[in-house]
Task: inverse folding
C-alpha cells in the first residue's frame, strides 16, 4: 500500500494547474466545516459564559414576556411588585427571593458623559448571597457593605479607558457623578472574561431606586431554590402563585419564570440550528469538490492511457491500476482537506479575535484534535470515493488499445 | 540453444469487428520459437505484425487457435492472469520507450518488480544492477525527460529484464533512434541473447533483421508468407512446420 502512496504522490507532482483548481470545492468545504464548527463551539462557550451561570438553582422572574439581556422589566405596563418578592419567598421550595434592578444611568467623569447599566445590591444581609450568586471578587479595593451609600463597585471593563468611553481609567478612590449624585469607587472587580461580570456597576438598592424614582415595582426577582432537584417544581409553584397574584389564566402569562438551564437550552438550540445549516452549505461545497475530483481523475485517466497500457504490459493487474488511481484521487482530496483545515483554523482565530474585541472578552478558538483528524480522513475518503469510477475505468482499459495512447 | 519450444502458436487468428466488417488482422499463424532464439518478425504495415506481437506477448487473446508460453496454454486466461504471465515471463521494449514520466530511471526499472511483489530492498539492488549493465548507473535518478532517446531505451531494456523474463519482446526497438544509437540498443539485445534470453523483435528494417536475427518470419496479410533461417553460407528458406 505504501508503494501506491509513493506512486500517487509522484504523479500528483506533475499535475497541471487545472487539477489543483478542482480542489477549491473540497478546500472551501473543509475550511467552512472547520471554521464554522470551531467558531460555533467558541460562540456557544462564549454565550454560555456570558450567562454567568454560577449556580443552576437560581430562577429568574420577570414581568412581560420579554426575556433577554436588557434592563429587565424597566418599561413594562404591569411590573412586578415588592409584595411579589415576599410572596414568592413563602413558597416551601424557595430558600430566598431577592429583588433586583438594572437601570441605565448617566455617568459623568473626566468631562465626559456616558450612559451605562447599573445593577442593584440588596440593603440586607442578602447582599452576601448576591455576591455568591455573581461569583465575584475584587482585584482592587473592596466590595460594598450592607446598606453602604454613595459608593460603587465596578467591573474591569468599566475601569478601562479603552472600553468605558470616558477616555480615562477609573481607579479606586475616584469620584464619579451618577444621575447628578457623587459616588466614590471603592472596588474594581477581577476580570472574568465574561461580558456580564466585567461590565457590572454595583450600587446600593435603596439609592438606585431613589435616583431612578422607583416606587414599589421590581425589575427582576432572583429566586434561590432549596435544592437543585426542586428547580422545576419551584418554577411551577412560582408560576402558579404569580398567575393568581396577577390574575391571569394559564397560557396567557404576562410574566416569565426562567431557569438558567432552559435559557441555555434555547440558546444552544439556536446555535445548533445555525451550525447544521452551515454544515449543509459546506456539504454542498464538498459535493461540488467531489465532482471536481471525479472530473479531473477522468481526464487524467484519458491522458495517461498509454501509461496505463504500459503498466499492464509490464505486469500490472487491474487491481494494481485501480489502487493507484484510487489512492491518487484520495490524496487529491487530502491535499484539499489540509489546505482547507489551514484556512479554517485561520478563519477561526480571526473570528474569535473579532468576537473577543467586540465583546471585550478573552476566549480561545476550540479546534479539537478529533475535528482535524476526521476532516483529514473525510477529505481523503471523499477524494478516493470520487476516484472510484475513474479508477475502475483505468483498471478495465484494454492493454492493447491503451498502449497506443 | 536448447530444443525446448518456448512460444508456440497453433492456427492462431485474431479478428476485429470494425463497423459491419470483420478485420482479419492475424489469420491462421503457426510458429514455434525455441528457447534462446533471436527471432525477427518482418512485414509491411498492415501485415499483422503488431497483432502478432500482442498475441505472443499475451497482451491479447486470440479469436481462434491456441498459444502456449513455456508449455502453458494462455489463450483463454483472464486479464489479471495474463498480467501475471506477462509480468513474469515477458519483457517488453517499445518503439516509443514507454517509460513512466513521473518515475526516475531506477523507479521505472523497479516498477515490474512491484507488480510481482518483490521486496523493496531486493528491487533496489536489482534495478541498480540492471542499470549498471546498460551503462546508466550514473543517471539512474534522472527522470525520462532528462534522458536522451538512446538512454531511455536502455532504461526500457533494464525494465524489460527486471523480472528475469523468458522472452524479450521488442517492437521496433530502434524505430525512434538514429542508426548509431540503434546499433547500441541491438548490441545489448544481442548480449542478452548470448546469455540465453530469447529475443523476439518486430521490425520493418530489413538490414537490422538480416544482421542480427537467426530466424525471420515474413508476414503478409495476416499470414506467414515465408520463413528464412540464417545458416552457414547465408539465408535459407524453410518450410513452416505445423
Result:
Amino acid at each position: 500500500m505504501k508503494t501506491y502512496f509513493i506512486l500517487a504522490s509522484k504523479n500528483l507532482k506533475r499535475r497541471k494547474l487545472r487539477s489543483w483548481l478542482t480542489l477549491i470545492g473540497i478546500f472551501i468545504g473543509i475550511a467552512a466545516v472547520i471554521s464554522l464548527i470551531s467558531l460555533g463551539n467558541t460562540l456557544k462557550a462564549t454565550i454560555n459564559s456570558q450567562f454567568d451561570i454560577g449556580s443552576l438553582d437560581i430562577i429568574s422572574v420577570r414581568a412581560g414576556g420579554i426575556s433577554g439581556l436588557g434592563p429587565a422589566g424597566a418599561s413594562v405596563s404591569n411590573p412586578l411588585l415588592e409584595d411579589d418578592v415576599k410572596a414568592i419567598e413563602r413558597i416551601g421550595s424557595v430558600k430566598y427571593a431577592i429583588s433586583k434592578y438594572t437601570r441605565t444611568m448617566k455617568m459623568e467623569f473626566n468631562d465626559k458623559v456616558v450612559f451605562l447599566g447599573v445593577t442593584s445590591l440588596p440593603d440586607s444581609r442578602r447582599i452576601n448571597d448576591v455576591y455568591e450568586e455573581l461569583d465575584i471578587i475584587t482585584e482592587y479595593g473592596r466590595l460594598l457593605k450592607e446598606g453602604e451609600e454613595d459608593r460603587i463597585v465596578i467591573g474591569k471593563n468599566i475601569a478601562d479607558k479603552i472600553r468605558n468611553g470616558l477616555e480615562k481609567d477609573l481607579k479606586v478612590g475616584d469620584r464619579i457623578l451618577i444621575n447628578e449624585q457623587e459616588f466614590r469607587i471603592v472596588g474594581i472587580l477581577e476580570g472574568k472574561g465574561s461580558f456580564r461580570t466585567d461590565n457590572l456597576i454595583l450600587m446600593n438598592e435603596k439609592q438606585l431606586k431613589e435616583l431612578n424614582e422607583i416606587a414599589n415595582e421590581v425589575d427582576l426577582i432572583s429566586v434561590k431554590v432549596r435544592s437543585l432537584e426542586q428547580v422545576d417544581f419551584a418554577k411551577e409553584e412560582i408560576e402558579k402563585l404569580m398567575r393568581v397574584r396577577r390574575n391571569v389564566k394559564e397560557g396567557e402569562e404576562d410574566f416569565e419564570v426562567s431557569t438558567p438551564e432552559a435559557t441555555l437550552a434555547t440558546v444552544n438550540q439556536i446555535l445548533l440550528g445555525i451550525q447544521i445549516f452551515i454544515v449543509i452549505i459546506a456539504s454542498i461545497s464538498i459535493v461540488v469538490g467531489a465532482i471536481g475530483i471525479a472530473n479531473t481523475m477522468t481526464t487524467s485517466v484519458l491522458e495517461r492511457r498509454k501509461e496505463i497500457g504500459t503498466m499492464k504490459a509490464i505486469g500490472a493487474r487491474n487491481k494494481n491500476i485501480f489502487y493507484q488511481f484510487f489512492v491518487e484521487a484520495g490524496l487529491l482530496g487530502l491535499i484539499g482537506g489540509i489546505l482547507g483545515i489551514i484556512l479554517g483554523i485561520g478563519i477561526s482565530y480571526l473570528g474569535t479575535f473579532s468576537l473577543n474585541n467586540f465583546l471585550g472578552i478573552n476566549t480561545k478558538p476550540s479546534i479539537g484534535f478529533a475535528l482535524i483528524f476526521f476532516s483529514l480522513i473525510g477529505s481523503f475518503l471523499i477524494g478516493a470515493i470520487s476516484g472510484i469510477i475513474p479508477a475502475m475505468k483505468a483498471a478495465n482499459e484494454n492493454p492493447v488499445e491503451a498502449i497506443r495512447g | 540453444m536448447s530444443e525446448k519450444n518456448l512460444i508456440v502458436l497453433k492456427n492462431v487468428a485474431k479478428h476485429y469487428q470494425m463497423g459491419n466488417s470483420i478485420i482479419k488482422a492475424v489469420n491462421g499463424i503457426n510458429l514455434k520459437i525455441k528457447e534462446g532464439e533471436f527471432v525477427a518478425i518482418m512485414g509491411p504495415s498492415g501485415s499483422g505484425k503488431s497483432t502478432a506481437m500482442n498475441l505472443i506477448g499475451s497482451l491479447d487473446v486470440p479469436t481462434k487457435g491456441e498459444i502456449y508460453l513455456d508449455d502453458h496454454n494462455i489463450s483463454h486466461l483472464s486479464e489479471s492472469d495474463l498480467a501475471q504471465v506477462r509480468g513474469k515471463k515477458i519483457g517488453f521494449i517499445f518503439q516509443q520507450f514507454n517509460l513512466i514520466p513521473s518515475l526516475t530511471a531506477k523507479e521505472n526499472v523497479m516498477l515490474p518488480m512491484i507488480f510481482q511483489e518483490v521486496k523493496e530492498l531486493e528491487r533496489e539492488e536489482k534495478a541498480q544492477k540492471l542499470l549498471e549493465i546498460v551503462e546508466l548507473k550514473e543517471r539512474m535518478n534522472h527522470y525520462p525527460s532528462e534522458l536522451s532517446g538512446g538512454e531511455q531505451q536502455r532504461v526500457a531494456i533494464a525494465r524489460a529484464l527486471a523480472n528475469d523474463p523468458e522472452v524479450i519482446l521488442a517492437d521496433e526497438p530502434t524505430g525512434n533512434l538514429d542508426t548509431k544509437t540503434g546499433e547500441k540498443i541491438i548490441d545489448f539485445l544481442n548480449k542478452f541473447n548470448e546469455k540465453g534470453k530469447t529475443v523476439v523483435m518486430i521490425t520493418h528494417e530489413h538490414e537490422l533483421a538480416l544482421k542480427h536475427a537467426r530466424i525471420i518470419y515474413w508476414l503478409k496479410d495476416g499470414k506467414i508468407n515465408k520463413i528464412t533461417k540464417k545458416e552457414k553460407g547465408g539465408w535459407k528458406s524453410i518450410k513452416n512446420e505445423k
